Amino acid sequence: FRTHRELIELMEEKRVEVFFYGLFMDFDILREHGLVPERWEVARLHGYEFEIASWGYLRTSDRQCVYGVVVPANERELAKLYDNTSGILTAQYFPEPVLVETLEGKWIPALCYVATSPPEGPVNTKYANAMVKLAEKFKFPAWYVEHLSSFRNAT
Q1: How are beta strands 93-102 and 107-115 bridged, if at all?
Q2: What single-letter DSSP state applies at residue 2?
Q3: Model pTM greater than 0.85?
Q4: What is the C-alpha separation between 22 and 24, in angstroms, rounded?
Q5: Per-residue pLDDT tens for 45-91?
Q6: Are 74 and 11 contacting, i.e. CB atoms less than 8 angstroms apart?
Q7: Closest among 8, 7, 18 to 100, alpha carbons compared
Q8: Contact 24, 58 (CB under 8 A)
Q9: For site-directed labelling of 116, which of 50, 61, 97, 102 has its Cα 20 to 30 A away?
């Protein structure tokens, strides 16, 4: 038998897959906020398009997909990550259950944090530059890197 506290601790440590599509694909940023990826996998989320304003966000689209990485995390790590960045983000992001597809064609249920409305402000070119570097690092398709690069010159 387990005590109530042991069960709570076990639940807190339970990991779920999380699909990161923005700067949280930068593992240095995740580590700064206490989330150390033990493993990761490149995946794509169908039915959305990635856009950049003052911050990255998803917009529904029946023609596009968004590339990112799937990382296991627990509730405590996610709360810390999103609590620490709530003063920086210009929109509120909430977890939604999604199905992402790996490059090998495997489907994975995951959580994905989606903004309730587009972030305020003009395109953040520094953010766009960082996203292009991450997309190249993870070897996302050329068309996707091109899409991200288009925000570098946005006004």
Answers
A1: antiparallel
A2: -
A3: yes
A4: 5
A5: 999 999 999 889 999 999 999 999 999 999 889 988 887 555 556 67
A6: no
A7: 18
A8: no
A9: 102
